[in-house]
Amino acid sequence: MISIRTALDLQRAMYQLLGQRSISQITVEQICTRAFIHRSSFYRYYTDKFDLLGQMVMHALEELLAAERTDATGSAIIAQFIGAHTQILRHLLVTNAEGDNIRCQQVINDCFVTLAQTESSDHVFVTIRESQHPDLTAYLVSGAVMSIVQWLNNSGRDGQSASTQATIQATLATIFSLEQHTV
């Protein structure tokens, strides 16, 4: 079991590094150096940098759900997540031969699927959970998140501004309201 202090040190180091560079440019050695933790300790708790990233994304989503107002919609929760973590999410938009972009998408998708399996009453996670194909529905949601981040990146918008939050929320609401069809 990972110590809370070690986990926080590693997450803080990864968060700081993601604020500076793309996930493809970050090594486990850099994470450990920044966290003042020996590399072998890292592998005692995580399989690789994407495992650490997955736990960070999961933690951020769980915090948003825990703080969720009862009147908040799924699109508002996801918009808040994007707004709060735009700088970090921008660095997950990678294109390289190593397939890091696929791994980043899989991390976000896995978090959505895992949260959908909980008893969360959030509309987005209920939609994923009740879908005939939860994994595919989660990919749609995670793809929408990364597409919005790409839009923010290309347009230089602030993901936390009120007008941008309203635009993101309206776009997500449209996506989440699409009728599911039986295949």
Automatic annotation (TrEMBL):
Annotated ranges, domain HTH tetR-type:
4-64
- Origin, by domain of life? Bacteria
Keyword annotations of the record: DNA-binding
Keyword DNA-binding among UniProt keywords: yes
Q: Which Gene3D superfamilies match?
A: Tetracycline Repressor, domain 2
Where's the DNA-binding part? 27-46
Name of the protein:
TetR/AcrR family transcriptional regulator
User: Which organism encodes this protein?
Assistant: Lactiplantibacillus modestisalitolerans
